């Protein structure tokens, strides 16, 4: 709850929406969290030269304003899952909107260690790409498992940036084969999403690859 408020604003907003029959999915900024980025810079995506991966701005360090992307092959994923669980425990939300996710090539020490442990080579581009696909698939799988365990009403929206719908579908097929027939693809038109569907993979015109 916001420290300057004496009541739970989000809870009251959801209650007001439900009172007039309006569904209230909640937005979560997945992968971007500047407060935590400064606390745990070792969880951030790194390029080959150790510079940071930035979202929407040119700065690739902390000396200029900008958002820095987290690697999901790090303890950041557990931290994000804790946030999702807190929401599902405390609010009757109709959906979760997880923004700005996607397959990211990463050379952080978690990713380097993962590749070496598998007998792969961090200098081999293809090995790095394959790890990015597994990391993203694991993220989707763990979020979906948590939501299914905690809620029978929350729909999931994954907003994917920087990969093609084709690759997104392959990734999706790996972890959710049994529910493919209920997956809806939307091409950049976020405002047209109908809430009856279970999972959305949304193609963005932006590219961070
Ligand atoms: Zn990484």
Q: What do you see in this structure?
A:
This protein has helices at 9-19, 34-39, 76-90, 109-117, 125-150, 165-176, and strands spanning 25-28, 54-55, 67-68, 95-101, 155-160, 183-187, 199-203. With 209 residues, the chain is α/β, with parallel strands linked by helices. The chain has one domain: TIM Barrel. The strands form 2 sheets. The protein has a 5-stranded parallel sheet with strand order 1-4-5-7-6, with helices on one face. It has a two-stranded antiparallel ribbon with strand order 2-3. It is globular, with a radius of gyration of 18 Å.
Q: Count of helical segments?
A: 6
One letter per element, helices H and strands E, the order comes to: HEHEEHEHHEHEE
Instruction: Tell me what portion of residues adopts beta-strand conformation.
Output: 5-15%
Strand count:
7
Strand order of the biggest β-sheet: 1-4-5-7-6
CATH superfamily heading = Aldolase class I
Distance between the termini: 35 Å
Low-pLDDT regions: 160-209
The residue fraction in helices comes out at 25-40%
- How many distinct domains? 1
Mean pLDDT reading = 75
- By CATH, the architecture is named Alpha-Beta Barrel
What about the largest sheet? 5 strands, parallel
Question: Could you provide a short overview of the structure?
Answer:
The protein has six helices and seven strands. It has 209 residues and is α/β, with parallel strands linked by helices.
